[in-house]
Amino acid sequence: MKYKRILLKLSGQSLAGEKGNGIDTDVLQEYAKQIKEVAALGVEIAIVIGGGNIFRGLGGVELGFDRVKGDYMGMLATMINGLAIESALEAIGQEAKLFTAFNTGPTGERYSKPKVIEAFKQGKVVLLTGGTGNPYFSTDSGAALRALEIEADALLKGTRVDGVYTADPEKDKTAAKFKDISFDEIIKRGLNIMDLTAFTLCRQNNMPIYVFDMDTPGNLKKVAEGEEIGTSIN
Question: In 3D, which of 145, 78, 73, 133 has the Cα closest to residue 103?
Fold first, then answer.
């Protein structure tokens, strides 16, 4: 097994599937199956998911919302997605525990590293919701921060694209895929893998990032076992 402990970053938009918004239960259930499959191998899994399928903070600003309030609305959206994944995992027999970046009553327990480590010891998949708990930070930044805090072996970024390309492969058919690429090369080429704050945090603290296609069943297991199906950034 290549990884013992991973931070899996998923976009909220990915949960919407073909619908474009909300939660597609077929996608949700498929993700849950993949996560359980990898947890059964003994890999400790923490998940950070965005909330863009429900509400995106920056999108709220365009509609006239106050930026800070909009960002908190986005953080709450990540909790809704986290609850959905937690429920889907439990429905198939995988224990899970949801943590929140700020107090939210019965929604989930307030995040702390020791509590997360204890949940890992109990064989639970961990959901880390609410981003960093602060406005002006994306869930990418939340994922980078939590990956470092819990001492993950790598930050796995599950997307609908099978890696990092020289250009957007959905727009440019001539785009070439990288097997490996350095942080510096990503910055030099201006490739938008994660927001710059998150990317810089990983770069400065030597947190490897692995970008892969999460929408293909079985891919998460392949990555956990070391099969090179995506792009490694280090």
Answer: 133
Query: Which pLDDT value is given to residue 74?
Result: 93
> Can you give the pTM of this predicted structure?
0.95
Q: For the chain, what are the domain ranges?
A: 5-193+202-233
Per-residue pLDDT, 169: 85
Contact 8, 156 (CB under 8 A): yes
Selected residue with higher pLDDT from 18 and 120: 120
Distances 136 to 49, 67, 80, 131, 205 between C-alpha atoms, Å: 17, 8, 20, 10, 21
Enumerate the β-bridge partners of residue 49: 10
Region 5-193+202-233: CATH code: 3.40.1160.10
Bridge partners for 233 per DSSP: 181, 209
| Rounded-to-integer distance, Cα 208 and Cα 161, Å | 18
pLDDT the model gives residue 171: 85
Segment 101-129 shows an average pLDDT of 96
Average pLDDT over residues 36-46: 98
What are the b/e assignments for 100-128, b being 16+ CB within 10 Å? bbeebeebbeebeeeebeebbeeebbbbb
In whole angstroms, how far apart are CA 221 and each of 192, 198, 214?
A: 25, 25, 10
